[in-house]
Design goal:
alpha+beta, 3 domains, six-stranded mixed beta sheet, 9 helices, about 20% strand, elongated, membrane, cytochrome-c oxidase activity
């Protein structure tokens, strides 16, 4: 007990309503399981003492093999506990779904009808955390702030490998994965500075992948936003590509302005110049690919200038395989091949086309 007194039981005593409900679930599940564990442990000691070899007064029935009453107790008690646990798990799994918007601020605070959630875009980098505030046009590294009693709507992704975003005082952990976007809804109910970190091993700098979560009053949060806005450093795609490079124990950094399309480019893995976005690839595939209706979609994407946001370096058109081979042969890079169709169907398939060859 003396050793445990030094522990920070933040999971069971958090500052956020979502984490508080999750902590209650841990306590309820533990107590229900202790209804079986404690009697079994006590009976184990009782049986060992009562039926010890030196106790000649204990009942000795070597031919005993069945008791209906005992069978009912052995099976009914765990079954009832499993039913209760299953019902609680079902309800709380839906109630505490990280994608589900909050319906309350705290147990005694209903959600105001006119409240606007704070949008925060989170990117797990090697080995640091990037927080983008699209509403305010600012960003920070390894520091996040949020006003007390205001719902927070997180959008999370990663740059290279899968990671896990976790602020024990705020809510449960949620994965951040490259090429995907996950969601988390939470709220902080008490001002303070809380620890956040990655709970999923992601390489050499994993141990230092930590950040400070600041729970602030509305006035203090406005002051924090003003301080970040006063930073002259912008976060555009060039700055992001420099920040994305692996680094460890990175100090807090602030960015006064942010490219509004940066997070979407990170999710679609097309921040780097000349890279087609995954969403554009999916649009072409949905239209049937470059040999079908997708060609019109691809040309429309090129005309709309939406591939990378770098108009001076992005692809300007699409070409057939034959055109690409002809261009390479004319430059002397490759020899001009002789292509012989292997079947009539191959001849009828028509020319293939490549995006960004």
């Amino acid at each position: 007990m003396a050793a445990l007194s030094g522990c920070n039981l933040v999971v069971l005593n958090p500052a956020g309503d979502v984490a508080s409900q999750q902590g209650d679930l841990v306590v309820i599940a533990t107590l229900l399981m202790l209804l079986i564990i404690v009697p079994v442990m006590a009976l184990t000691v009782l049986f060992a003492w009562r039926y010890r070899q030196s106790n000649n007064t204990a009942r000795y029935e070597p031919d005993w093999d069945h008791s209906t009453q005992l069978e009912l107790v052995i099976w009914a008690a765990p079954l009832l506990i499993i039913i209760v646990l299953g019902a609680i798990t079902w309800v709380t799994t839906h109630k505490l779904d990280p994608y589900r918007p909050l319906d309350r601020i705290a147990a005694d605070k209903p959600l105001p009808a006119d409240v606007k959630p704070l949008d925060v875009q989170v990117v797990a980098l090697d080995w640091k955390w990037l927080f983008v505030y699209p509403e305010y046009g600012i960003a920070s590294v390894n520091e996040m702030a949020a006003p007390v009693d205001r719902p927070i709507r997180f959008s999370l992704t990663a740059s290279t490998v899968m990671n896990s975003f976790y602020v024990p005082a705020l809510a449960g952990m949620i994965y951040a994965m490259p090429g995907m976007e996950t969601k988390l809804h939470a709220v902080i109910n008490e001002p303070g500075t809380y620890k956040g970190f990655s709970s999923n091993y992601s390489g050499a700098g994993f141990s230092n992948m930590r950040f400070a979560f600041l729970g602030l009053s509305d006035e203090d949060f406005d002051g924090w936003v003003s301080k970040v806005r006063s930073t002259a450093t912008p976060l555009d795609r060039t700055a992001y590509l420099a920040l994305e490079k692996p680094s460890e124990a990175v100090p807090v950094q602030h960015y006064g302005t942010v490219d509004p399309k940066l997070f979407n480019a990170v999710v679609n893995m097309c921040v780097r110049p000349g890279t087609m976005c995954m969403s554009d690839m999916a649009a072409i595939d949905r239209a049937g690919g470059l040999n079908a209706g997708g060609m019109a979609v691809a040309n429309g994407i090129l005309r709309a200038n939406t591939l990378t946001g770098f108009p001076d370096t992005q692809p300007t058109g699409l070409c057939t395989v034959a055109e690409a081979v002809e261009a390479a042969a004319n430059s002397g890079a490759v020899q001009r091949p002789t292509v012989t169709p292997t079947s009539a169907s191959a001849t009828q398939a028509g020319p293939q086309r490549l995006a960004n060859p």
